[in-house]
Design brief:
single chain; about 220 residues; alpha/beta; Rossmann fold; 2 domains
Length: about 220
């Protein structure tokens, strides 16, 4: 039996972990530009309203592009990122129980393709990077559904599919999950790195195996 009709997941830091909790953006900045300090500076500019999310994505991606990034080189840079144990099994269990399973994340699609081939999500919303025939970065598209946009998207999907928000659950770990945590009927903070998210969450799970989420998400 399912407890929720829809379960949405963050990806970076939740289903995928990196060394020192570095995100895909920080690792790729380190790999191609030699530092991840850009991330803290640009996040501060974003929060201050001095930088749009799309412009933030463009600054990062053009930095990699100027450094000669290719699809193969990006996959090499993603090497330290690993899928959390039990993630696929957890997503499949939720699907088998009849839940709509959705990824709502500020991650990159190339990361999901790398660590979770044939992902068991019904829908995926994240940032996109496209490559030309030589594997060089050709274009990109910033997701409108990170930060505050996560909550907006959850409302949109719930309305579209006729699912009451109280029947929607969300699993995340960071500060960019705070908005959607307020919107979802139930929120799990999975190995949280944000005190605000931990306080907002209905429950906190600390584990190295995503299957420990299932008792909270299935009836």
């Amino acid at each position: 039996m399912r407890r929720f009709d829809l379960v949405a997941f963050d990806v970076d830091g939740t289903l995928v972990r990196g060394p020192q909790d570095l995100t895909v953006w920080e690792l790729l900045n380190q790999h191609f530009t030699g530092t991840s300090e850009h991330n803290r500076e640009r996040y501060a500019q974003y929060r201050a309203g001095k930088l749009s999310y799309a412009d933030w994505v463009t600054l990062d991606v053009t930095g990699w592009q100027e450094a000669g990034a290719t699809r193969e080189g990006m996959i090499a840079g993603l090497g330290p990122l690993q899928l959390v144990d039990g993630s696929r099994e957890t997503l499949v269990s939720l699907r088998d129980a009849g839940c709509k399973v959705v990824a709502i994340s500020g991650t990159l699609d190339i990361l999901l393709e790398h660590v979770l081939p044939d992902p068991p999500f019904h829908e995926i919303y994240c940032n996109h990077i496209g490559f030309d025939e030589d594997g060089r970065i050709d274009h990109w598209e910033a997701t409108p559904f990170d930060m505050e946009g996560k909550a907006r998207l959850l409302r949109t999907i719930a309305l579209r599919d006729g699912i009451p928000l109280e029947r929607c659950a969300y699993v995340g770990d960071s500060g960019n999950d705070v908005w959607i945590a307020r919107e979802a009927g139930f929120c799990v903070a999975f190995n949280p790195k944000s005190a605000e998210l931990e306080e907002l969450a209905n429950t906190v799970v600390r584990s190295t195996d995503a299957r420990d989420l299932l008792p909270h998400l299935l009836g």
